[in-house]
Design goal:
The protein is α+β, with helices and mostly antiparallel strands. The protein has helices spanning 11-22, 51-65, 68-74, 186-205, 211-226; strands spanning 3-5, 27-28, 41-42, 44-45, 76-79, 83-88, 92-96, 101-105, 111-115, 118-123, 131-132, 135-139, 142-146, 153-157, 162-164, 167-169, 171-181. The radius of gyration is 18 Å and the shape is globular. Bound molecules: nickel (II) ion. The site of nickel (II) ion (NI) has 3 residues, from loops. Residues 78-181 form the Fe2OG dioxygenase domain.
């Protein structure tokens, strides 16, 4: 399932991120690329341990954790600390699949594995301010091109082949990260998301309907059966 989630960041938060990123110390994006994807990758990235990456990463993580659509679609178990990248002057990232497991360094130096069930890209520049830079994702239904307003996020299965088209004018700034979900399978996450959306709509429109209690029970009992926590 490929899902766009609007307004994950407010206009003020987007402006703050852009202002901080403008003066940040960018590095070659190959620092986090796997062996295979390093050949396809040409962009700039903030080093994970930089102060700006940590500060803005915490801001993004807090925003997604407060977003009910994100929670419902991802059912996150672990979120890899958000990273930041920049494409400009024709830079691009050819077709690749992200590494299956990322290791998050804890405060004690121990590495915590995060299985990348889902990938997320949070756009920080409005589409009219740069040319190219579409995120192209191979979905079950074919190729999807994604280029969202600043502050919006796209969530897609970590199993997907994807690329970023060359940026031929301006600069494309984004935050990107991975999520280990309580549900490993995309098909299960999709079912749970559709069930949750339906329950929420019924709760708004027919709040007294007795079947709502039963349906909510079905949701939680399916989650209990499938969840890996
Ligand atoms: Ni990727």
């Amino acid at each position: 399932m490929l899902l766009s989630i609007p307004d994950v960041l407010t206009a003020e938060q987007v402006a703050h991120c852009r202002q901080r990123l403008q003066h940040a110390g960018w590095a070659d994006g190959r620092i986090t690329a796997g062996h295979q994807s390093a050949k396809a990758k040409d962009n700039l990235q903030l080093p994970e341990d930089s102060e700006v990456a940590r500060e803005l990463g915490a801001l993004v993580q807090e925003a997604v954790q407060a977003n009910s659509t994100f929670f419902s679609a991802a059912l996150p178990r672990r979120i890899y600390p958000p990273l930041f990248n920049c494409y400009r002057d024709g830079q691009s990232f050819g077709f690749h699949v992200d590494n299956a497991v990322r290791y998050e360094r804890g405060a004690d130096g121990a590495a915590q594995p995060v299985r990348t069930d889902l990938s997320a890209t949070l756009f920080l520049i409005d589409p009219q301010d740069y040319d190219g830079g579409e995120l192209v994702i191979e979905d079950t239904y074919g190729m999807q091109q994604v280029k969202l307003p600043a502050g919006h996020l796209v969530l897609y299965p970590g199993t997907s082949l994807h690329r970023v088209n060359p940026v031929t004018r301006g600069a494309r700034l984004a935050s990107f990260f991975w999520i280990q979900s309580m549900l490993r399978e995309d098909s299960q996450r999709r079912l749970m998301f559709e069930l949750d959306v339906s329950i929420r709509r019924l709760t708004r429109e027919v709040p007294e309907h007795p079947s709502l209690v039963q349906l909510t029970g079905v949701y939680h009992n399916l989650l209990r059966r499938w969840a890996d926590v």
